[in-house]
Design goal:
Layout: H1 2-9, H2 18-42, H3 47-60, H4 70-78, H5 81-88, H6 113-119, H7 149-158, H8 160-163, H9 175-178, H10 184-201, H11 219-225, H12 228-234, E1 238-241, H13 263-266, H14 289-299, H15 303-318, E2 322-324, E3 334-335, E4 338-343, H16 371-381, H17 386-402, H18 406-409, H19 424-436, H20 441-457, H21 462-488
Parallel strand pairs: 1-4
Antiparallel strand pairs: 2-4, 3-4
Helix pairs in contact: 2-3, 3-4, 10-11, 10-14, 10-15, 16-17, 17-19, 17-20, 20-21
Length: about 500
């Protein structure tokens, strides 16, 4: 108490209002929260280390944390946290830069395995959301004037800004913003603005970037929310889908509705009120946009004005670059971790859809030789020449066919041949006999005997059939030799 009294007397204490002090603490927490949100979207390689450091700094706003993980203490030591606090009474991150790859100098640039285990994070890195480049007004064709539909779908899903033209405000819609408030154009602009605000408001905050309210005061502001940039900027994860409505060319599958023809989906007629289900039910009563639309159509407009109002709403829908993949019961739908967003083919940079060229099928490389080729190679490795080996394999294959059952033989009836016409079997026999004739006959017979002996050792009864074949071959060759001698005489 004496020390406190002495300091009060010498006026060494700065007194602050509690509102000023707590406002200062709130601003510190808000700055840390916003900067961490940017870190999360960037998903750097050292996200775990930075997350631990940010958590420590947030706790330090109100109290000094007592339970600190080792990797956080290591980061604080590398940043000389204690020296800075002892000198200035608070801590600063002078080297923090949220626009470069190395966000904070002085700490590890990659999370170690121990850090990931402590955080309970998956060992694979989370995929960062790619940054959308600025869209240019060029009118080229990134895939050509008539790309295949599969390539169009792929580029729309991965990099839609390459395929979609830059959005500009259509001049023919100026009446929806600056026209007479009593005219149908201005009324359509007001309904479209309500439709946009309430449709976006139906999304849970977890799907959106930030918690800022959806604000649109004119139809122009509302249309900007349905652009590619507007969707990409506000939604955390988008699954962009290609649409084939109104495109010329070879497009497989069912044709989809044009954007302007989706009026009945978003603005159903008053007589169809009972068919409005799901998420749309919240808009059925005023100040819901459907309640406003139905009251205007039923009580305030003539038939001509009613058709004019619907025509302006069609124009506004047709000028949207993107719309949610809505159904009759659901405004938004998801695909994986992203919201499904349909893109407007009116803005595609192509003239038509071309045919996909037929891909050449690569011939699969064979691993093994065929059975007959392998038999020939085995005989050649045993010391027999190529012609003898092939002849033996042909004779053996015919013998195997002869041993088949009657049912297997009659499975396919061979075609009837004319008299005097030799079939392929006769030609094969003649070729075999030419090889076997002469000095090579004994070699072939010996090879067949060796094969028969091996079959006998294995317990098969193939030897008798093979011996019969060899006897036939010997008799045939002997008869032919006799005929040749008679001719010589």
């Amino acid at each position: 108490m004496m020390q406190a009294q002495e300091r009060i007397e010498v006026d060494s204490i700065i007194w602050l209002r509690s509102s000023t002090w707590f406002e200062f603490l709130a601003q510190r927490l808000d700055a840390l929260q916003k900067s961490y949100k940017i870190l999360y979207d960037m998903a750097p390689d050292n996200h775990g280390i930075l997350a631990g450091l940010w958590a420590y700094l947030m706790q330090s706003v109100l109290f000094t944390p007592t339970m600190v993980n080792p990797y956080v203490n290591q980061s604080l030591a590398q940043l000389q946290f204690k020296k800075v606090v002892d000198r200035f009474g608070m801590f600063f991150l002078h080297d923090l830069n949220l626009r470069r790859k190395s966000i904070l100098k002085g700490v590890l640039e990659v999370d170690e395995l121990a850090v990931r285990r402590i955080l309970g994070a998956p060992l694979t890195k989370r995929r960062a959301k790619p940054e959308m480049p600025k869209m240019s007004a060029e009118t080229g064709f990134p895939l050509g004037q008539a790309p295949p539909w599969e390539e169009v779908k792929q580029i729309i899903a991965a990099e839609p800004w390459k395929m979609i033209k830059k959005w500009t405000w259509p001049e023919d819609l100026e009446e929806t913003v600056s026209g007479d408030p009593e005219q149908m154009a201005r009324q359509a602009g007001r309904l479209f603005m309500l439709f946009t605000i309430q449709t976006w408001s139906s999304l849970q905050p977890a799907w959106l970037n930030g918690r800022d309210p959806i604000i649109a005061t004119t139809a122009r502001d509302a249309l900007s929310l349905w652009t590619l940039q507007g969707m990409y900027r506000r939604i955390k994860e988008c699954s962009f889908l290609a649409c084939n409505a109104g495109l010329d060319g070879a497009i497989p599958g069912k044709r989809e509705e044009r954007f302007e023809n989706r009026l009945e989906l978003y603005f159903p007629e008053p007589e169809n009120q009972r068919q409005v289900i799901g998420s749309y039910r919240a808009m059925k009563t005023k100040p819901g946009y459907l309640g406003e639309y139905w009251e205007m159509v039923e009580h305030s407009l003539l038939e001509e004005e009613r058709e004019e109002l619907k025509e302006w709403l069609r124009k506004l829908l047709g000028c949207c670059q993107c719309l949610p993949a809505s159904t009759k019961s659901q405004i938004w739908s998801s695909q994986g971790d992203g919201l499904k967003v349909v893109t407007n083919p009116t803005y595609y940079r192509l003239n038509s859809v071309g045919k996909l060229g037929r891909k050449r099928q690569r011939k699969r490389k064979m691993i093994h030789f065929g059975v007959r080729d392998l038999k020939v190679r085995i005989l050649e490795q045993s010391g027999h020449n190529s012609k003898v080996a092939k002849a033996v394999v042909r004779v053996q294959s015919r013998a195997e066919k002869a041993w088949r059952s009657g049912k297997a033989k009659n499975k396919r009836k061979p075609p009837m041949r004319k008299r005097g016409e030799e079939g392929p079997e006769m030609e094969m026999e003649n070729d075999d006999m030419e090889v076997i004739r002469g000095e090579q006959t004994e070699t072939v017979v010996q090879v067949m005997k060796d094969i028969a002996a091996e079959s006998e050792e294995d317990g098969t009864d193939d030897m008798e059939s093979e011996e019969d074949d060899t006897d036939d071959m010997e008799s045939e060759s002997t008869q032919e030799e006799g005929v040749d001698e008679n001719e010589d005489e």
